[in-house]
Specification:
The protein is of the alpha/beta class. The protein contains 5 helices and 5 strands. It is about 25% helix and about 10% strand. A 3-stranded parallel β-sheet has the order 1-2-4. The protein has a two-stranded parallel ribbon with strand order 3-5.
Length: about 160
């Protein structure tokens, strides 16, 4: 095969329709736009237009709001942590932080902090340094002999003083 012999598959490239080039072309005169009216003209954007009646999206009431101060947390379960420790991705002797979880591949990227959820079993002793942990997660970690330090709770206490 030579470079000058390379071709597309037959029918892979379709020629564009040239409209308004005489009645013999099949798309002459009105160019496939039908007859007269607003849609036959150029620059038409009718999307939500209802003939002058108040459009539906403006008739309906506005609801709710978007809290710009809301924090977005990563969530990790106790079962995921245990699986990562058993697989050797997490070092149980080191404190488990957000950076360690990202390096282990449990989180894609660091957000505003990590929430640890209590689903699953934990067999290895780990010390967690996370934003939040549920009561069941704290109980599971302490039952396995580990400890939990909640960073968000510390920050709230410091702000309160």
């Amino acid at each position: 095969m030579k470079l000058d012999e390379i071709r597309d598959n037959p029918g892979a490239r379709k020629k564009r329709m040239r409209v308004g080039r005489g009645i013999g072309s099949g798309k002459g005169k009105t160019g496939g736009r039908g007859v007269k009216g607003q849609k036959a003209r150029t620059g038409v954007a009718i999307k939500g237009f209802e003939g002058g009646q108040m459009p539906l999206h403006r008739r309906l009431p506005k609801r709710g709001f978007h809290n710009i101060f809301r924090l977005d947390y990563n969530e990790v379960s106790i079962g995921d942590l245990d699986a990562a420790v058993k697989a050797g991705k997490l070092d149980a002797s080191q404190p488990v932080t957000e950076a360690a979880l990202v390096a282990a591949g449990l989180l894609r990227r660091a957000k505003d902090g990590v929430r640890v959820l209590g689903s699953g079993e934990l067999t290895s002793k780990v010390s967690l340094e996370v934003a939040y942990a549920t009561k069941s997660a704290v109980a599971a970690v302490e039952k396995a002999g580990g400890s939990v330090v909640m960073l968000a709770v510390k920050a709230e206490e410091a702000a309160a003083q």
